[in-house]
Amino acid sequence: MLLGVGQAGLHVRDARQEDHTVLVVMIRLEDKFVPMMNTQAIFQQFVQPTVSLGVRQLQHGPLQVGRPVRLVTLIVALGVDRQGRKHVLGLWSGATENAEVCGALLDDLIARGLSVDKPYLFILDGAKALKKAVTSRFGSKGLIQRCRVHKKRNIQKYLPPKYHGMLSLKLRMAWGMTKYDQALQELRKVHDWLASINQAAAESLEEGMEETLTINRLGLPSQLRRLFSSTNLIESCFSRTGDLCRGVKHWRDGNMAQRWAATVLLEAETRFRRIQAYGQLPLLINALTSTLDKQEAVA
Question: Does this model's pTM top 0.85?
Answer without folding.
Answer: no
